[in-house]
Amino acid sequence: MFDFKNDIICTDRNGVANNFKYHLKESKENENKKWVFMIIPENNINIYDWFEFAVTEIDNENGKVTIMSHKNNPEYVAKGIPEKMIEESSIVLNKSIHSSSNIAEFKSFETEWRSDSATKVWRRLQDQNNADYSEASDTYTFVN
Q1: What is the pLDDT of residues 77-93, one digit of tens each?
Q2: What is the pLDDT of residue 13?
Q3: From CA 26, how far away is CA 24, in angstroms rounded?
């Protein structure tokens, strides 16, 4: 069973704070360590319908965001969850967190790609001086 014991507060697009809880599980993806964060609203513990956020390890110091999925659930859309989870994963995993790249030579994984929606998340972080962008590698890095 999942244990949603970790609390986070996410600020939505209207500036409203929303309380969520998450469960963290460790798995593997193609021999790489992967951490999956399962996020749910604090007041609605429906464990089968969560926001999924995952970071896959590149090396001991670095991880890449490989999943950010609200599954079109209105409880998760535009709530600021991805931005908060990028920050939270950096702290919890003690790693530098990077976006995926859409340039083949800079991909760490065969199935790696970054959606337009994910790029918007990273650009918002960049606008807040919380992410740096490398045009050469088409990657963002979270700045704590």
Answers
A1: 999 999 999 999 999 99
A2: 94
A3: 7
